[in-house]
Design a protein that fits this description.
Shape: elongated
CATH topology of the largest domain: Rossmann fold
Strand content: 15-25%
Number of strands: 11
Structural class: alpha/beta
Helix content: 25-40%
Length: about 280
């Protein structure tokens, strides 16, 4: 049976230019777990202060990431990601503000994507700001730790968190490397808890919201302000807000319509239900 979407949601979104805010629940159908879904285990994400303040903690994190990033890189866009890309091609979706670091919107073909919290595939030096690819760093880490991946058996039984962090405990034998250019500390180009999203990125996202006719939240509990602020901005502008999430969100009070259905089935149905928007 073909998926259906609630008539009220179709009514609110029809013939409107939609900006999307997406969260971890958007990627669960691609095999990436979420943070706060109904079936998610308790998580304690690493903070920026922990990363920069403790050499041992940082080494332990990189050991886990050396396993987890490969799982994230292997993930593929699901039907929801592909549906959003199609809605953009039809002029309906004008942009995506994603809290995810998995790059699946871009891999699906969406063109205007603001990676609010960064992406898993880049690494930044905290001293000289040089950016390198995660692939490049992986080669260096493999050379420094030739037997590490085999020792943790990543193929089976390793839980992967939404930020590309693998849940493993035995990492004492892992050795980290520093920036090749200046010897500084390397950090994934990801905004951690306790760290601010760069102001230009936030301004670009606000601009998307300000020029939209509706806002749709997909798979985010909106627990952190980095996503909730866009819902508040839309509410202040009195534009319709549709929230699709398995569970309550911090933004429900602002919503014009709420659905607890899955993102993939809802978006697939919207592709059939919403008429294209033709530009003048």
């Amino acid at each position: 049976m073909a998926a259906r979407v609630r008539p009220r949601i179709v009514e609110l979104l029809s013939r409107r230019r939609i900006v999307v805010v997406s969260g971890a629940g958007m990627s669960t159908d691609s095999g990436i777990p979420d943070y706060r879904g109904p079936d998610s285990p308790p998580r304690n994400p690493m903070t920026y202060q922990q990363f920069i303040g403790d050499d041992e903690f940082r080494r332990h994190y990189w050991a886990r990431n050396h396993v987890g990033w490969r799982h994230m890189d292997a993930a593929r866009p699901n039907a929801g990601h592909r549906a959003l890309a199609e809605l953009e091609r039809r002029g309906i979706v004008t942009g995506i503000i994603t809290q995810n670091v998995d790059m699946l919107h871009t891999k699906a073909g969406s063109r205007r994507v603001i990676d609010l919290h960064g992406v898993y595939a880049r690494v930044r030096c905290l001293s000289c700001e040089q950016l390198v690819s995660r692939f490049t760093l992986a080669r260096r880490l493999d050379e420094r730790n030739p037997a590490f991946l085999d020792s943790v058996s990543p193929a089976k039984g390793v839980e992967i968190a939404p930020d590309a962090d693998a849940v493993i405990t035995s990492t004492a034998h892992f050795r980290m490397v520093d920036c090749e250019q200046c010897g500084g500390v390397l950090k994934p180009d990801i905004v951690y808890f306790g760290e601010s999203v760069p102001k230009p990125r936030v301004a670009e996202a606000f601009d998307l919201v300000d020029n939209a006719d509706a806002l749709m939240v997909l798979g985010s509990s909106l627990t952190v302000m980095s996503g909730l602020r866009f819902v508040r901005r839309a509410a202040k502008a009195s534009i319709p807000i549709v929230i699709v999430n398995r569970g309550a969100t911090r933004g429900d009070q602002f919503a014009s319509a709420i659905s607890h259905d899955g993102c993939s089935e809802t978006l697939t149905a919207l592709v059939d239900a919403l008429p294209p928007i033709h530009r003048e």
